[in-house]
Amino acid sequence: MSVNPVFSEYTSGGCLHVIVRGSEPRLSASLSSLPGCGGVERLADDILVLSAEPEIDIDDFLCRALGVATGLGAEIIEARLGGDGGRREIVVAGFKVEAGTAETTPGIPENGTIILEPGLAFGSGQHPSTRLMGRGLAYISGRAESFPSPVLDIGCGSGILSIICARLGGRRVVGLDINPAAVAGARRNVALNGLEGRVRISAEPIESLKGSFVLITANISPFVLFEIAPRLPGLLAPGGILLMAGMRDAQMDDLWKILRQHGLDGRRQVYRDGAWRGLLLET
């Protein structure tokens, strides 16, 4: 079953929809019991769509959903606001993010616009952690004579950050993801934005990755951040920059300790969006 048509019915109604990946039998019932839950529907054996009631506190609901999901070994892979009446214009790092496909969007989009094909991969621009990453990328772009390159985007999802890095001036960007659907979707998105010559999307494991990167971005779950942290010093060029998001306050403190334990220190900035946190580290 094609991913995009399956999700298309969840893009109307002006409500928050959260896509959760997990196989724990109790997951659906636990999510259904969340205050403000409007229903849970199963799309595949390990994919659920959690719908929220209108007018809820989005950050609070996402935090509660995240707590339930992580407690049962699941992960939130996307959160979206559906419907024209409830959807705000999506702007990340100064780029307007619009939905489209090769059929509906012929030609390369204009400079201030990024086109993303709707799908289940994380990264529509709606999620607070993606906005935090956008703030960090805008800061990096605004203070440097040229945008850092090469770039490694770990857990690239839809490819939104890889695309933004290239549009900001990154000459070589490598996006990594272990989800085959995300890799395929990100490659389509790179092509939609005319960036095949500058962005390479790969399913290569981080353990086998070779090279040195001036900028490493990672908009992924804190548990994955903790896991990959020991490998980052071997991938980051001297004086390089780390930009990470997807965590909350206590998790931020834990991540900072792990990074320092592995020799990654320097000038840091913390970005905040509701309960979510992002970290920019200039080593």
What percentage of amino acids are in beta strands? Answer: 25-35%
Q: Return the CATH architecture of the largest domain.
A: 3-Layer(aba) Sandwich
Task: Write the CATH fold name of the largest domain.
Answer: Rossmann fold
Helix percent reads 25-40%
Rg, rounded, reads: 18 Å
How does the helix and strand content classify structurally?
A: alpha/beta
What does this molecule look like?
The structure is a single chain. The protein is of the alpha/beta class and 283 residues long. The chain has two domains: 3-81, Alpha-Beta Plaits; 128-282, Rossmann fold (3-Layer(aba) Sandwich). Helix content is 29%, strand content 29%. It is built from eight helices and 14 strands. The strands form three sheets. Strands 10-9-8-11-12-14-13 form a seven-stranded mixed sheet. Strand 5 and strand 6 form a beta hairpin. The chain is globular. The N and C termini lie far apart (45 Å). Residues 1-13 and 83-87 have low confidence and may be disordered.
Overview features:
four-stranded antiparallel beta sheet; 283 residues; globular; Alpha-Beta Plaits; 29% strand; 8 helices; Rossmann fold; alpha/beta
Question: Gist?
Answer:
This protein is of the alpha/beta class and 283 residues long. It has helices at residues 3-8, 27-32, 58-71, 128-143, 160-167, 180-192, 222-228, 249-261; strands spanning 16-21, 37-44, 47-52, 75-81, 91-92, 95-99, 113-116, 151-154, 173-176, 199-202, 213-219, 236-247, 267-273, 276-282. Helices cover 29% and strands 29% of the residues.
Helix and strand arrangement:
Elements (H helix, E strand, L loop, with lengths): L2 H6 L7 E6 L5 H6 L4 E8 L2 E6 L5 H14 L3 E7 L9 E2 L2 E5 L13 E4 L11 H16 L7 E4 L5 H8 L5 E4 L3 H13 L6 E4 L10 E7 L2 H7 L7 E12 L1 H13 L5 E7 L2 E7 L1
Parallel strand pairs: 6-7, 8-9, 8-11, 9-10, 11-12
Antiparallel strand pairs: 1-3, 1-4, 2-3, 5-6, 12-14, 13-14
